[in-house]
Structure formats: C-alpha cells, structure tokens
Automatic annotation (TrEMBL):
NCBIfam families membership: 3a0107s02c
Transmembrane segments: 63-91, 137-155, 182-203, 210-229, 249-275
Keywords: Cell membrane, Membrane, Transmembrane, Transmembrane helix, Transport
InterPro entries: MetI-like, MetI-like_sf, Phosphate_PstA
Locations listed in the record: Cell membrane
Family: Belongs to the binding-protein-dependent transport system permease family. CysTW subfamily.
Superkingdom of origin: Bacteria
Domain ABC transmembrane type-1: residue ranges: 66-272
Species name: Hymenobacter segetis
Keyword Transcription regulation: no
Protein name in UniProt: Phosphate transport system permease protein PstA
Length: 284
C-alpha cells in the first residue's frame, strides 16, 4: 500500500468518525431538548412569566429572574462594548507590530479561554469586596463584562482585518486622516462582524452561572431590581436553585425556565448569524 493510498484511507476514516460523532452529538442534543420541552412546556404561561419566587412550585415564577437577566445583558453591553471595540481598533489600526504586541495578542486570546469561575473569583474580590458593590447588578455586569471583553477584542480585530486594505489606501489618497478613515470607512465596513461578535459574546454571558454564584447572587429575590446597585436574581441562578430542590414540581419549573433561557440564547445567536450573512454579502 502506497503512502498516498494510506493517507486517503486515513482521511476517509477521519471523515466517517467525524460524521458519526457529529450525528451522535446532534441526536443527544435533540433528545435533551425534547425532554426539556416535554417537562416544562406545560408550565409556560403568563402567570409563570409574571410570577414572583415562591416556596410553592405551582405559584413560583421567573419575573424577578427574567428582569435581572435583562439588567445584566444591558449593563454588560454598556460596560464591555466601548472598551472592547476601542481596544480592538487601537491594537489593529494603531498598535505597532512587534514582540510586545505579539505577546499581548497571545495573552488576550488566552484570556478568552479562561474558565468563567475564575472571572467570578476576580469579580468577588474586586467589585464585591474591594469596591463594596455587594451582590448587585452592577457587580455582576462588571464581572461578565470582564468575561466577554477578550472575545470582543478578538472579534473586533478579526472584523477589521477582513476590511480590504484598498479601502484604507483610497481614503488616504483623498486626504483623509487615519482617524477619519477608521471612523467613516473602516468601522462601517466592519460593523457586521463587530456586532456579530458582540451578540455571540452576550449570548455566552446570558447563560453563565458560575460567576454569578461566586459573587453571591441570590436565588430568592421577591422584588425586581430598580437600579444597578440593587440585589437581583438571574435565570441561570434560578434554574440552579430549582433543580437542587427535592420536590419534583420544581423540576418542571426549572425546565420551563430553561426553555425561556434557550429562546433568549437562540434569538441572540440567530441575530448574529443574520448579521454575519448580511455583512458577508456587503463585502467585495
């Protein structure tokens, strides 16, 4: 058997294994989703969405947790987006290519893969204890902003790299400054990729539980947060609390809350896919 034939057989074998593994994963995911829908679809209703937490499963709702999750998404975006995009623009458009730049790029990429519980410990020490924000919406939003910041920086740089160099050169040839070129030409051309990365990063932040548990987010909060300094609950924490209860009825509540959280996540991912498609259509 020649080396070429052997390589072809190995390549075909890897493809078959990959297809089988992907099919098995999709099957398991489909079974999991069907089980969740079967267990929780009956609890989805207006009273469940508007209801407050309760010791009685038939009265319990996700109103406070849903509003807390909304607060987290908004604050995380407000804190992370300006810093992440500005850092990405500086590193890609203004930063000098050298040893320190390469080291910084590697560290940012590595930070994107750090486990979320580590960011929770950082948020506990810095925001909860040192800044004395307590288990507030602001502390949680700041912690999750740190979590998605490396992702935003990396996706911003990749979106800027995808903009043709000729667009910058044409702008410079017409007498525009570097900042005018970035603001009026490069950023609009890269906006689709930047927003795609932002939405995907927020979709990750929505489902994070470990950082919220570490900073002490409560599972039972009988009121909706009215300011960034208020205590709050969130859907992942509420789901974790209900699953840990011994009563079987709380399992159905957790399944219904998982459906709501999945709908939010799928909506964000769908928006990211749509923006990415539209952005690619606009690229020359």
């Amino acid at each position: 058997m020649t080396s070429t034939t052997r390589n072809r057989l190995l390549d075909r074998g890897f493809r078959v294994v990959g297809v089988l593994a992907t099919g098995a994963g999709l099957l398991l995911l489909a079974l999991f989703l069907l089980d969740i829908v079967h267990a929780g679809a009956g609890r989805l209703s207006g009273p469940f969405l508007r209801g407050l937490p309760s010791r009685f499963p038939e009265r319990a709702g996700i109103y406070t947790a849903l509003l807390g999750t909304t607060w987290i998404i908004v604050l995380t975006a407000l804190l992370a987006v300006p810093v992440g995009i500005a850092a990405g623009v500086y590193l890609e458009e203004y930063g000098h290519k050298g040893r320190w730049a390469a080291l910084l790029e590697v560290n940012i990429t590595n930070l994107a893969g750090v486990p979320s519980v580590i960011y929770g410990l950082l948020g506990l020490e810095v925001f909860v204890r040192f800044l004395r924000l307590g288990s507030s919406v602001l502390a949680a939003g700041s912690t999750l902003a740190l979590l998605i910041l490396p992702i935003l920086i990396v996706t911003t740089r990749e979106a800027l790299k995808a903009v043709p160099r000729t667009l910058r050169e044409a702008s410079f040839a017409l007498g525009a400054t570097r900042w005018q070129t970035i603001w009026h030409q490069v950023l609009p051309a890269a906006a689709g990729g930047i927003f795609t990365g932002l939405i995907l990063a927020l979709a990750r932040a929505v489902g994070e539980t470990a950082p919220l548990l570490v900073i002490g987010v409560l599972a039972y909060v009988p009121f909706a947060p009215a300011s960034p300094l208020d205590e709050f609950s969130a859907l992942p924490v509420q789901i974790f609390n209900w699953i840990s209860r011994p009563q079987k009825a709380f399992g159905a509540n957790a399944a219904a809350a998982i459906i709501v959280l999945l709908l939010i996540t799928f909506s964000l991912n769908g928006a990211a896919i749509y923006l990415r498609y539209r952005w690619r259509q606009r690229l020359p």
